[in-house]
Every structure is written in structure tokens, then in C-alpha cells.
Amino acid sequence: MARQVPKFQKNPKPWKTIGSKKLIKAGNVELYIDKIVSKTGFRTDFLRLLLPDFSVIVPVLDKKRLVFVWNYRHPIQGWELELPAGGVDNGESPETCARRELKEETGYSARSWKGLGWLHTLPGMSPQKVHVFLANGLRKGSLKREPYEHMKTKVLSIDQAYKLLRSGRIIQSPTVSALGLAEKTLLG
Where would a tag sit more exposed on the chain, N or C end, judged by fewer CB atoms within 10 A? Predict the structure, then answer.
């Protein structure tokens, strides 16, 4: 039986935007305040955050292990165990981004790629999407991390990774979601 993928529904739209003002632009992040009105006539202001889409990779090493990174995240002042990921550059496809980020963050490249789907990261505030890819046939190369990236590569067995996920020790949302999308493929 084919897996049913929910269709992203855009209509009907209960809110209409009647005005919008950019509050701030910092690099590729923009914050707007929208004036919206409902079908019943209720009016309110709504903050909308534009963030670039990004790709997250589930890198499978020798069919039994996954490649993660310990990543220092300044906003939480701590380290998290994450799958490799990064922002889609302007004009870049999500798969091209995934290929680039895997190499930059882990040094690995992959022979085969499979898109597992996408999801919204913060739908209550932003239209940002994360695109999830499964990478197989890994070959080790050299790291090319950005100067601001503080990471350590960590290889875990697939079973170990899902034990950490289920015990609440993997908590980074895109990693949790990507492992969820990859679970049937990885665990059968």
C-alpha cells in the first residue's frame, strides 16, 4: 500500500492581509507586521518572520550507522546532537544545498540521494520549510566548515540514534522530524 502524504492546503483563507510593513531586515531574515482581517471582520496585527528554507540530511554510513554533528548553538548556550543541515542559498535547490552542507559539515559526500519530504518549522510565525534528504553510499573527504560553525562529527548506530531519540536526548526539532521521516526506511 502506498504511503499517503497529506496535501498542503492553501484554501479557504479565513484571513485577508490588508497591509504589511517591514520592521527589520538583518541579512536574510526579515520581520514584518501584517494588518489582517478575518471573514467576520475582526482586525489584528500579526508578526510574520521570513527565514530562508533549509535542508537536513540523514547520512547513512555502511547501512548500520548514521553521521551526526555535535553543534554548538549560541541562542541556547549549549551543544545539541543534530543531523547535518544548512540554509538554502538564493537560487539553490534544496538537494544542492543538502549535498553542499553534508560535505561542509561532515566531510562526507554521497553516491545516492532520496528526498523524504518537507515540513514547516514555525508555521505559526513563518513560511520557512525544511527539506529532508536521505544520503547513502558515503565517501569520506575533507571538512569545509564555516568559521562560525563549532561542531564535532559523531557516528552512531541506527539503533543507538533511535534510542537517544525515544529517550528525549535528541531534541533538536529538525533532527527529530528528519529521523521520523526516515524511520521506516532505516528500521523497516
Answer: N
What range defines the domain where residue 76 resides?
54-187
Q: pTM to 2 decimals?
A: 0.90
Of 105, 160, 164, 100, the C-alpha closest to 131 is: 100
* Cα gap 144→130, rounded to integer Å: 22
3-state SS of the chain: helix, strand, coil percent to 5?
Answer: 20, 45, 30
The per-residue b/e assignment along 20-39, b for 16 or more CB within 10 angstroms, e otherwise, is eeeeeeeeeeebbeeebeee
Max distance between CA atoms of the chain, in angstroms, equals: 59
Domain total in the chain: 2
CA distances from residue 188 to 132, 164, 183 in whole angstroms, order as listed = 18, 18, 7
> What would the pLDDT profile of 4-20 be if each residue is shown by its tens digit?
555 677 888 899 999 99
Residue 156 phi/psi, 5° resolution? -125, 150
Question: Where residue 171 falls among pLDDT bands split at 50, 70, 90?
Answer: very high
